[in-house]
């Protein structure tokens, strides 16, 4: 069975341990207990864990840590779509205007590629109406960064512009390929 909570705990632990030490990672991920409490809801864990992470690291490091926590779920399927779109188009504008790109939430505006969702894609936040910060959402930007770098074959910058869980009507990311062959 796919246990998103366990996967997120492990990914976050690894990302933090890679920047500090295992004691810091355990303190942030598990608080004062080891493992999952059967009574603790996923969204309670998210809030408490992000509070501990934000108290321990500066905002830029929190973003970097969370970007490293992306799950890779269904990445190959999405990568296949992006490869198909790249093969069918010659420019970034054509890419963003392709009907399949639009159906997947992508579009180009003023020469920039955007990806939007009309729902929060994170199953950990299914029961959450509002978050106090966008820190948790940064794993989705990490997912997009990995996905688009694989598809475009170059470094990609991803910026979170809007988040449903922060009160916006959509989740919106700006995707900026740094060395793609098209203009």
Please summarize what this structure is.
The protein is of the alpha+beta class and 183 residues long. It contains eight helices and four strands; from the N terminus they run αααααααββαββ. α4 crosses α8 and α5 crosses α8.
What's the β-strand tally?
4
Q: Overall pLDDT, averaged?
A: 90
How much of the sequence lies in strands comes to 5-15%
Please report the number of helical segments.
Answer: 8
Q: Largest sheet at a glance? A: 4 strands, antiparallel
* Overall geometry: elongated
Order of helices and strands: HHHHHHHEEHEE
Q: Which residues sit in consecutive blocks of at least 5 with pLDDT less than 50?
A: none
User: Which strand order does the major sheet show?
Assistant: 1-2-4-3
- Based on secondary structure, the structural category is alpha+beta
Oligomeric nature of the chains: single chain
Helix content: 40-55%
Q: Give the termini distance in whole angstroms.
A: 43 Å
From the alpha carbons, calculate the radius of gyration and give it in angstroms: 17 Å
């Amino acid at each position: 069975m796919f246990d998103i909570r366990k996967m997120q705990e492990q990914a976050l632990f690894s990302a933090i341990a890679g920047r500090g030490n295992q004691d810091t990672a355990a303190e942030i991920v598990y608080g004062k207990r080891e493992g999952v409490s059967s009574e603790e809801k996923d969204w309670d864990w998210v809030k408490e864990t992000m509070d501990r992470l934000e108290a321990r690291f500066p905002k830029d490091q929190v973003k970097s840590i969370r970007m490293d926590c992306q799950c890779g779920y269904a990445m190959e399927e999405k990568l296949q779509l992006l490869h198909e779109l790249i093969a069918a188009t010659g420019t970034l504008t054509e890419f963003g205007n392709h009907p399949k790109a639009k159906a997947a939430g992508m579009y180009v505006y003023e020469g920039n590629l955007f990806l939007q969702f009309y729902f929060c894609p994170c199953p950990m936040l299914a029961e959450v109406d509002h978050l106090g910060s966008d820190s948790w959402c940064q794993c989705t930007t990490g997912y997009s960064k990995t996905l688009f770098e694989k598809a475009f074959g170059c470094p990609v910058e991803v910026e979170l512009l809007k988040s449903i869980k922060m009160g916006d009507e959509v989740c919106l990311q700006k995707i900026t390929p740094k060395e793609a062959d098209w203009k």
